[in-house]
């Protein structure tokens, strides 16, 4: 397991004299064979600016910083892959923060790159190579030509072509899960928000948040353009917007209008679910799926990261319970971090949270964050650290009816229900 590192020009090398290491939280650790898989297709190797790589010298057995003007390297994994360890590194300048990405440990082994990760879902649907650039450009051109005055389509065209967002791209390709952002405001101040950061945060947001309020008609046009097949999904709540339920009136009106014109496809919302009254209205309007973003089922950890404004984790739980009771398929967008999510108290709290809310799916998402900043923000560990692989095994054993995955799935029960609905006309 040779250490992988980069020079100042970004060229990658493996070091035959050093064994690569990973990190679990602040703890530097060796990587086990059963934690490694070949670098997945669609993954990206990146240098970590202002860091130095750490390895174990194979001759002396000592852990040390690799000498020379080099930086550590990490992998950015595509959806469907859950990281098990962070890269092994120390910061050369502790005042500098890493860009907001989810860095995974990588080594050179058996003539190829390997990463500390586990495949938790089928990667094919969200593999970037399945988004043909030429086909996407044609789709964008066609829809922008057909909906010349729709600002939402114009906004999404930049998300698709500029940021290469696959959900936005799907909107123009009429396939799978498509995006319909609606909100420029938020009721949380997430520490790792990817669309809006305070000027003094130390790390810039990698995306630009939408800056207008779409009309109901604009939202309806996007929804109807996408909901043309029985398996299509249209989703409120994207990385380029704030909290969608702050625009509950627009969402409710749009859902009702769309459902008066078609029963095809599924309507989803990605939300923090803090505005319980708003969520109830959206559910009652005809919502099919709800994915709630969370980083923890513990109040102190949740509050430290999300900085909720006018709501609590209890409101989130009430929203999930109400939706589940109304037949909505509920899931969580679980932001995970090696060395934190696998703490004993975190695992126990999340298992009980999932049981109380009748979750159907846990979507595992690698948290995009500067590790040192995050670790200094949240409460210290109170119990044992199990490791990510064991954590996943515990979830599978304790929550046998909850799917562990990476993206939205349509359960057979819901698909059959919708099929009968369509047959009735």
What's the number of helices? Answer: 12
User: Could you describe the largest sheet, including whether it forms a barrel?
Assistant: 14 strands, antiparallel
Shape: globular
The residue fraction in helices comes out at 25-40%
Quaternary structure: single chain
List segments where confidence is low: pLDDT < 50 over at least 5 consecutive residues.
none
Mean pLDDT: 91
- Strand composition percent: 15-25%
| Secondary structure: number of strands | 21
- Helices and strands: which structural class? alpha+beta
Query: First CA to last CA: what distance?
Result: 59 Å
Q: What is the alpha-carbon Rg in Å?
A: 22 Å
Care to describe what's here?
The protein is built from 12 helices and 21 strands. The model has no long low-confidence stretch (mean pLDDT 91). The chain is globular and about 75 Å long. The longest helix is centred in the first third of the chain and has 14 residues, at 133-146. The chain has helices spanning 133-146, 151-161, 166-173, 216-226, 248-259, 276-286, 299-306, 313-325, 344-357, 371-377, 388-398, 412-423; strands spanning 2-6, 12-24, 27-30, 36-38, 44-47, 51-57, 63-65, 71-76, 81-83, 86-87, 89-91, 103-104, 106-109, 112-119, 177-179, 233-236, 266-271, 289-294, 329-336, 361-366, 403-405. Residues 172-411 form the Radical SAM core domain.
What is the element layout, followed by pairings?
Blueprint: E1 2-6, E2 12-24, E3 27-30, E4 36-38, E5 44-47, E6 51-57, E7 63-65, E8 71-76, E9 81-83, E10 86-87, E11 89-91, E12 103-104, E13 106-109, E14 112-119, H1 133-146, H2 151-161, H3 166-173, E15 177-179, H4 216-226, E16 233-236, H5 248-259, E17 266-271, H6 276-286, E18 289-294, H7 299-306, H8 313-325, E19 329-336, H9 344-357, E20 361-366, H10 371-377, H11 388-398, E21 403-405, H12 412-423
Parallel strand pairs: 15-16, 16-17, 17-18, 18-19, 19-20, 20-21
Antiparallel strand pairs: 1-2, 1-8, 1-13, 2-3, 2-6, 2-10, 4-14, 5-8, 6-7, 6-11, 8-12, 9-14, 13-14
Pfam families: Radical_SAM
Keywords: 4Fe-4S, Iron, Iron-sulfur, Metal-binding, S-adenosyl-L-methionine
Domain Radical SAM core: 172-411
């Amino acid at each position: 397991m040779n250490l992988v590192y980069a020079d100042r020009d970004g060229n990658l090398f493996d070091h035959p004299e050093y064994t690569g290491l990973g990190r679990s939280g602040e703890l530097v650790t060796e990587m086990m064979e059963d934690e490694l898989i070949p670098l997945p297709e669609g993954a990206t190797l990146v240098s970590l600016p202002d860091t130095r790589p750490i390895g174990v010298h194979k001759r002396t057995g000592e852990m040390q910083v690799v000498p020379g003007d080099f930086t550590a390297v990490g992998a950015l994994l595509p959806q469907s892959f859950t990281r098990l360890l962070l890269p092994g590194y120390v910061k050369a300048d502790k005042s500098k923060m890493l860009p907001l990405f989810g860095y995974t440990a990588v080594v050179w082994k058996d003539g190829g790159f390997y990463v500390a990760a586990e495949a938790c879902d089928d990667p094919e649907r969200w593999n970037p190579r399945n988004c043909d650039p030429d086909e996407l450009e044609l789709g964008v051109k066609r829809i922008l030509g057909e909906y010349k005055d729709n600002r939402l389509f114009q906004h999404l065209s930049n998300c698709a072509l500029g940021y290469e967002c696959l959900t936005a791209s799907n909107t123009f390709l009429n396939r799978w899960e498509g995006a319909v952002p609606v909100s420029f405001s938020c009721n949380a101040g997430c520490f790792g928000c990817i669309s809006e950061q305070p000027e003094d945060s130390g790390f810039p947001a990698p995306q630009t948040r939408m800056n207008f309020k779409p009309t109901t008609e604009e939202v309806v046009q996007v929804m109807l353009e996408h909901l043309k097949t029985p398996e299509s999904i249209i989703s409120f709540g994207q990385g380029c917007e704030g909290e969608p339920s702050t625009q509950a009136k627009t969402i409710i009106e749009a859902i009702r209008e769309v459902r008066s014109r078609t029963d095809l496809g599924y309507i989803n919302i990605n939300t923090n679910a803090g505005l319980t009254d708003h969520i109830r209205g959206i559910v009652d309007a005809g919502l099919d799926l709800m994915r709630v973003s969370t980083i923890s089922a513990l109040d102190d950890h949740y509050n430290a990261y999300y900085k909720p404004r006018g709501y609590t984790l209890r409101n989130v739980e009430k929203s999930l319970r109400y939706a589940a009771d109304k037949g909505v398929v509920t899931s969580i967008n679980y932001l995970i971090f090696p060395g934190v999510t696998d703490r004993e108290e975190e695992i126990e709290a999340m298992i009980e949270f999932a049981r109380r809310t009748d979750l159907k799916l846990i979507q595992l998402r690698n948290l995009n964050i500067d590790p040192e900043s995050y670790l200094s923000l949240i409460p210290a560990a109170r119990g044992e650290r199990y490791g990510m692989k064991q954590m996943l095994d515990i979830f599978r054993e304790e929550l046998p009816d909850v799917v562990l995955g990476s993206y939205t799935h349509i359960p057979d029960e819901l698909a059959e229900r919708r099929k009968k609905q369509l047959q009735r006309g």
